[in-house]
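step=encode ok
step=design start
structure_in=
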């Protein structure tokens, strides 16, 4: 990669990080004004001293969807927020309230008992 291309890439990455930080600060400040400082999952209460542990979760997982009324946000502690995203990833992006993921129907060991019976006879 040429030095010029490297500089352009560095600039693009820096701009993306700056824009993301600005966007997050905007909706975080609005969410903290709209909602009580309580985790929406575990009900842990927050004060100014530990407010950095309270995060804004986007219910539809789209960080660009920030309606003025805050209807896509909920405040979650860092632990519940991490758990929420883990559950979302584990469900392949299908979230509670939406269509349920398909349940596996293949039974890999369905005929195993019959095989054992044949061997012991």
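sequence_out=
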């Amino acid at each position: 990669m040429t030095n010029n291309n490297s500089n352009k890439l560095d600039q693009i990455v820096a701009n993306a990080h700056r824009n993301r930080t600005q966007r997050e600060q905007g909706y975080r400040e609005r969410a903290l004004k709209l909602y009580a400082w309580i985790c929406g999952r575990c009900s842990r209460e927050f004060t100014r001293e530990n407010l950095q542990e309270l995060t804004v979760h986007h219910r539809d997982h789209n960080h660009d969807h920030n309606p003025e009324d805050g209807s896509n946000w909920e405040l979650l502690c860092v632990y519940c927020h991490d758990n929420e995203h883990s559950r979302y990833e584990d469900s392949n992006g299908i979230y509670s309230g939406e269509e349920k993921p398909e349940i596996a129907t293949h039974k890999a060991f369905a005929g195993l008992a019959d095989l054992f019976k044949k061997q012991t006879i």
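step=design ok
step=annotate ok -> The longest strand covers residues 54-58.
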